[in-house]
Amino acid sequence: MRYIRYAFLAALIIVLVSVSLANLQMVTLKLMPDALAELVGFNYSLPLPVFIVVLGGIAAGLIIGYILEWLREHKHRREAGEKYREVRKLEREVNKLKKQKNEGKDEVLALLEESN
C-alpha cells in the first residue's frame, strides 16, 4: 500500500511540474474590477505566472475547506471529549469501590476477585 501511495504522489508531482512548466505566461492578478477600483480610488494588481495563480487557488480552497470542516466538527470533538472524561471518572469510581469492597481481605483473593 505504501508503494501505491508513493507512486501516486510521484505521478501527481510530475503532472504538477509539467503543468507549471507549460503555463509560465505572466498574467495580471487584480484585487478588484477596473470600474470598482475607479470608484474606490484604490487598485492593486500583481503580475504572476498562470501556474502560481492556479495552484494558489487550489491551495487556498483546500485550506479554507479544512478550516470550515474543522469548525463544523467542533461539536463532535467536544462531545467525544466529554464522553472520554466521563468514562475516566467512572473507571476511577469503580476502582475506588473495588478497593473499599476488598479492604481487609487477603491480597491474593482480592486480586482473583478483581479479575472476574
UniProtKB/TrEMBL annotation:
Key word Cell membrane present: yes
Coiled coil: 80-114
Transmembrane parts of this sequence: 46-68
Superkingdom of this protein's organism: Bacteria
Lipopolysaccharide assembly protein A domain location: 42-95
Keywords for this protein: Cell membrane, Coiled coil, Membrane, Transmembrane, Transmembrane helix
Transmembrane among keywords: yes
A Pfam family this chain is assigned to: LapA_dom
Record-given protein name: LapA family protein
Organism: Ruegeria spongiae
Taxonomic path: Bacteria, Pseudomonadati, Pseudomonadota, Alphaproteobacteria, Rhodobacterales
